[in-house]
Amino acid sequence: MADEHRSPLSGIHTLLSAIRYRYRLIIFVAVALLAAGVTYVMSMPDVYQSSTQILVNPQRVSDKYVNSIATMDASERLNTLSQQILSSSRLETIMDELHLFSNLREKVSRDELIARMRKNIGIELKHNSEGLSAFTLSYTGDSAQEVADVANRLAASFISWNLQDREQEAKGTTTFLANELATTKSQLDDLEEQLRSYKMKHLGQLPDQLDANMQTLSRLQVELQANTEAQSRLDREALLTSSLPDTSTTHAPATPSSIRQKLTADKNAAQADLVELHKHYTDSFPDVGRKEAEIRSLDAQIAALPSDPISSAATETVTANPRLQLIRRDRARLQEEQRKIQGSIGLYQSRIDSAPVREQEISQLLRDYGTARDHYRALLEKTYSAQMAAQLEQEQQGGNFTMLDKARVPEAPIGPKRIPLLLGAFFFAIAAGIGVALLAETLDNTVKSEAELRDCLPDIPLLGTTPGMQTVPIIRRGLPQSRFLLGGQ
């Protein structure tokens, strides 16, 4: 029941009472912590920061003339370079070159030093409408000269590694294209040799020679017809000559032409008609078939004739006639020419017939050759472009990084912020002193007020209170100075 009648201000009154009662403890704890905080803040080393700005240059030569072979934009390249340069091996090299953390090398492992160095490096990117335009590289440390040296060393590493990376990329592309070009050229040479061998093997049967073969075949057919007609004329002339009496031989009887000569003349005429039909019709035409059957029938009739002694005598008579001898020589020559013409006609006819097959075979070779040739030309153009791009990178005319200003030695530290830290230490010391006083008050079991007594003995009625007894020094501090002086007398 006592807790229900307690005032809300009793807790604040208790707190103020504890502060008044233990103010010496509060002052002691606050002063001790404040002294320790001030000592720590003032002993903290100064922190310096030095930075440099690196400009991302676009390619100086227009893409219309030389295409860049860089596969990454500036942001991706910067990310890759950051991973390379901020690697443990690179940072360890810089740390050894500049003798960083010389006072901590015996106390801390190298991995921790590299992690601390990586943490002190800052990269801030700046973009425009076209992408990455520049970035700021900074380094933080406890030495002004050291932070400037490290920032400049890191900036130089970024620039040199960017150039080296682009040159290696250009050389790698050029080498790859050169190898591909050599392989493609070898394949192209093989296909050219195959195509040349095929053309030499099937010379005269190629599709592009079809028109020439057709013209030659027509010319040979005309020649065959003329030859057949010439033989027919010679046969008629031989018949007329053989029917006349021979003036040089009075005893040679004048015999008529034999059946063999007539059949031969009919065969020559039929062959002339067949040549004429071939000019206008194919072998499947009925007239062509009938004419060929007629020629075969005449050949069979000539072969079936028996030897004629009269014909032999006539032959001897013909041999004795000079005119007939000339006619026989001319006819033999025409027959030889006829065989040659017929052989040529058969050859060119076979070439014409095989043209579709040759066209199908050579089309595959030409298609493979054309594909290899186009690929070779494309690789050749790319190789020339890659060589120009590599030359451009070697002359540093491609897109690269440029340090605008070197990192300078900072004149003033950027930290620590001692005034805010001191204020924080002051308020922390006061709060800690009050906290210690409250803790001591909580741990103290003595009764210091009527409320505490009622809380300890809720069932026992309170009869009365006695005023607190004050010591002499406290009484004297409470009395006026004049009264104190009178009491001394």
Descriptive report:
- The chain has 489 residues and is α+β, with helices and mostly antiparallel strands.
- It folds into 3 domains: 10-44 and 416-488, no CATH class; 48-181 and 396-403, Bacterial polysaccharide co-polymerase-like (2-Layer Sandwich), CATH 3.30.1890; 207-383, no CATH class.
- Helices cover 68% and strands 6% of the residues.
- It is built from 15 helices and 4 strands.
- The protein has helices spanning 10-21, 23-43, 74-85, 88-98, 110-120, 144-201, 210-243, 259-280, 286-304, 309-320, 322-394, 418-443, 450-456, 472-478, 481-488, and strands at residues 48-56, 121-128, 131-141, 401-403.
- Strands 2-3-1-4 form a 4-stranded antiparallel sheet.
- A hairpin with a 2-residue loop joins strand 2 and strand 3.
- Helix 2 packs antiparallel against helix 12 (418-443), helix 6 runs antiparallel to helix 11 (322-394) and helix 7 (210-243) runs antiparallel to helix 8.
- The chain is rod-shaped.
- The two termini are 54 Å apart.
Quick recap:
68% of the residues lie in helices and 6% in strands.
Query: Portion of residues in helices?
Result: 55-70%
> Could you give the order of the helices and strands?
HHEHHHEEHHHHHHEHHHH
Decide which structural class fits the backbone. Answer: alpha+beta
Largest beta sheet: strand ordering? 2-3-1-4
Multimeric state: single chain
Q: How many domain modules?
A: 3
Strands, total number: 4
Low-confidence stretches: 1-6, 246-257, 316-320, 479-489
Report how far the terminal alpha carbons are from each other.
Answer: 54 Å
